[in-house]
Amino acid sequence: MLSSRLKNVTPSVTVAISSKVKELKANGVEVINLSIGEPDFTIPDKAKAYGKKSLDENKTKYDLVPGLIELRKEICKKLDRENNISYTPDQIVLSSGAKNSITNAILVLTDPGDEVLLPLPYWVSYSEIIKITNAVPVEVPTCKDNNFKVTVEDIKKYVTEKTKAIVITNPSNPTGCVYTKDELYEIASFCLQKGIYILADEIYEKIRFNDSFVSIASLNEEIKNITITINGFAKCAAMTGTRLGYTASNTEIAKGMSTIQSHIVSHPSLTAQYIGLGALLECEEDMQHMVETYKKRCTLITDRLDKINSISYVEPSGAFYIFIDLSNIKKNFDYKESFSVEFCEKFLEAEKVAVVPGKAFGIDEYIRISYACNESEFMEGINRLEKYIKNFI
């Protein structure tokens, strides 16, 4: 008999959709994929050169569990320079992607039955990672009028004696919203008062369209001490397949994560780490080019969406997603269980466009589209969306 935890864990919706798209394409069906959060850029050549050089020099043996010391030093410099946070290399733990980092953090912070607060909408894997570790995800409803950014008043209603941590994603996936410094300070101060750890997922921090982004751990030393910053190279350097994430935390938490990681993956791929080192040292210009491209795409796609009747969306300030409200469509759409899941299935079948159902993020009236693809694709995808929803207006 298999583990009972499998009964509570749902496969990744975004991965499932991506697999379906690949299956359709393999069968000769042309599909526009607006579902997956994967940059359409490739790893910058200068970063790849570091990986190639490491292989040529046979740097393929076991290394330190928390990661290459030279890479951790560069991450410390990056956090000091860009995020105004001071860390030492022993407080940085490299992992095989941000998911691995989040899992390490949850394992260190929680015991079975402890609760982790998840403001709605949230990235699909948070709740499942929490379940896998035998902690309990607790959904915290937020307000559309506040662009779904959680407030202390929202949080207070769901804090219990079992509350151990809260996940704050900034910029947000799926909404693209960015918290202000004052908003973060209010939340962090409350968490400090209640002894609640903060998992600050800042994987999209470079992909922002204004200067309002602030790292939670930069607010003050006390807040920094209860914050585990999650980051990585997948989004900023297009390193999705090479799997390289990292955490920055206090020394005790970092040591705990290293201990756990030593028994699970030892350390992330050395080749990936050298590519990440190259990205930090050589590729800031490449990364900024990606951000400017996303910013241009965001303007194009929101201008187009503004011309479509009966829908609205959350105004993004970062990441590369649009969270679209289809409440007006839902009223006339025939579905059995989940509006957004069945809408996405039928939309894919009818118009050959893949998008992600809002149910995957905890809000069923919405869909998420990604503009991490070329302009002609996402604009055609929106044209087909407009055509399709006219059937239900």
Automatic annotation (TrEMBL):
<dbReference type="InterPro" id="IPR015422">
    <property type="entry name" value="PyrdxlP-dep_Trfase_small"/>
</dbReference>
<dbReference type="InterPro" id="IPR004838">
    <property type="entry name" value="NHTrfase_class1_PyrdxlP-BS"/>
</dbReference>
<feature type="domain" description="Aminotransferase class I/classII large">
    <location>
        <begin position="30"/>
        <end position="384"/>
    </location>
</feature>
<dbReference type="InterPro" id="IPR050596">
    <property type="entry name" value="AspAT/PAT-like"/>
</dbReference>
<dbReference type="GO" id="GO:0030170">
    <property type="term" value="F:pyridoxal phosphate binding"/>
</dbReference>
<dbReference type="InterPro" id="IPR015421">
    <property type="entry name" value="PyrdxlP-dep_Trfase_major"/>
</dbReference>
<keyword id="KW-0032">Aminotransferase</keyword>
<keyword id="KW-0663">Pyridoxal phosphate</keyword>
<protein>
    <recommendedName>
        <fullName>Aminotransferase</fullName>
        <ecNumber>2.6.1.-</ecNumber>
    </recommendedName>
</protein>
<dbReference type="GO" id="GO:0006520">
    <property type="term" value="P:amino acid metabolic process"/>
</dbReference>
<dbReference type="InterPro" id="IPR004839">
    <property type="entry name" value="Aminotransferase_I/II_large"/>
</dbReference>
<comment type="similarity">
    <text>Belongs to the class-I pyridoxal-phosphate-dependent aminotransferase family.</text>
</comment>
<dbReference type="Pfam" id="PF00155">
    <property type="entry name" value="Aminotran_1_2"/>
</dbReference>
<dbReference type="GO" id="GO:0008483">
    <property type="term" value="F:transaminase activity"/>
</dbReference>
<dbReference type="InterPro" id="IPR015424">
    <property type="entry name" value="PyrdxlP-dep_Trfase"/>
</dbReference>
<keyword id="KW-0808">Transferase</keyword>
